[in-house]
UniProtKB/TrEMBL annotation:
It is an enzyme of class 4 (lyase). It catalyses: a 4-saturated-(3S)-3-hydroxyacyl-CoA = a (3E)-enoyl-CoA + H2O; a (3S)-3-hydroxyacyl-CoA = a (2E)-enoyl-CoA + H2O. NCBIfam families: PRK05862.1. SUPFAM superfamilies: ClpP/crotonase (SSF52096). Could possibly oxidize fatty acids using specific components. Its EC number is 4.2.1.17. Keywords: Fatty acid metabolism, Lipid metabolism, Lyase. GO terms for molecular function: enoyl-CoA hydratase activity. This is enoyl-CoA hydratase.
Length: 257
């Protein structure tokens, strides 16, 4: 299908989605959010795709929800139209999504990056929850996910003041996994995604599910969940292939079975 607000490409086993509303710094309007969901659905169904990279432009990953679209809403419209639930689609993706963030990731843009499985940041990246300056609070998980990533003190300061965090501070605080020179960001993100896509897809998906579980449950239940999944791996041909290849001193050939 044709997209007006994003670009969608396949790079081997990697699905690449580029937010593409340059005139609005990739602000997330309802059309873009709908297209993002459609593109993710297609990559989930495509058995050749093992990992997804979500990126924006050099200047902005996304400068937030589209303020001009939201500005005239009243409570009933905001509640009934509900831009946020369709954006949640990103956090429900079963294949991993890497956010490759350069420039601004603000408000809903920062929240979107945090819905991904990990964030690789260009040295130009700036993260923030400036909603308070607009008379609202973060609405797509900012108060919750940012707090889990960076701790209460920093999350509270950012949400209460709208202060932005640069890439170096974001790495130091645990919001991003790594900082990369801006010119190399996409290449590096695709390389990392390619590496993940080469592993056994069911194992990749169950790894993601198990790490995500740690956010939703107690340590004891999380460890029980992990152990059940670990034992279940021995039903996979890929477990046998991975361990046999190690003993044979050769590269494994995973078949996703
Ligand atoms: N929405 C709509 N348009 C935007 C947005 C936005 N979030 N951000 C930038 N734009 C537009 C500008 O209006 C401008 O358009 P025009 O040329 O027609 O005036 C164009 O993009 C370029 O922007 P600037 O001229 O402002 O560029 P600067 O380089 O001077 O400044 C900034 C860049 C600092 C990023 C600035 O644009 C800015 O502050 N933007 C708003 C950031 C913000 O407040 N974001 C939070 C939005 S609220 C939110 O995200 C709530 C989330 C709730 C859930 C989300 C569900 C989807």
């Amino acid at each position: 299908m044709g997209y007006d607000n994003i670009r969608v490409e396949k790079r081997g086993k990697v699905g690449l989605i580029t937010l593409d509303r340059p005139k609005a710094l990739n602000a997330l309007n309802s059309a873009l959010i709908g297209e993002l969901g459609t593109a993710l659905d297609a990559f989930e169904k495509d058995e050749r795709i093992g990992c997804i990279v979500l990126t924006g432009s050099e200047k902005a990953f996304a400068a937030g929800a589209d303020i001009k679209e939201m500005q005239p809403h009243d409570f009933a419209k905001a509640y009934i139209d509900d831009l946020i639930t369709p954006l949640d689609r990103v956090s429900r993706n079963r294949k991993p999504i890497i956010a490759a963030v350069a420039g601004y990731a603000l408000g809903g843009g920062c929240e979107l990056a945090m819905m991904c499985d990990f964030i690789l940041a260009a040295d130009t990246a700036k993260f923030g929850q400036p909603e308070i300056t607009l008379g609202v609070i973060p609405g797509a998980g900012g108060t919750q996910r940012l707090t889990r990533f960076v701790g209460k003190s920093k999350a509270m300061e950012m949400c209460l003041t709208g202060r932005m965090m640069d890439a170096e501070e974001a790495e130091r605080s645990g919001l991003v996994s790594r900082v990369i020179p801006a010119n190399d960001l996409l290449e590096e993100a695709l390389k990392v995604a390619d590496k993940i896509a080469d592993f056994s897809l069911p194992v990749v998906m169950m790894t993601k599910e198990s790490v995500d579980r740690s956010y939703e449950t107690t340590l004891a239940e999380g460890i029980r969940f992990e152990r059940r999944v670990f034992h279940a791996m021995f039903a996979l041909e890929d477990q046998n292939e991975g361990m046999t290849a190690f003993t044979d001193k050769r590269k494994p050939q995973f078949t996703n079975k």
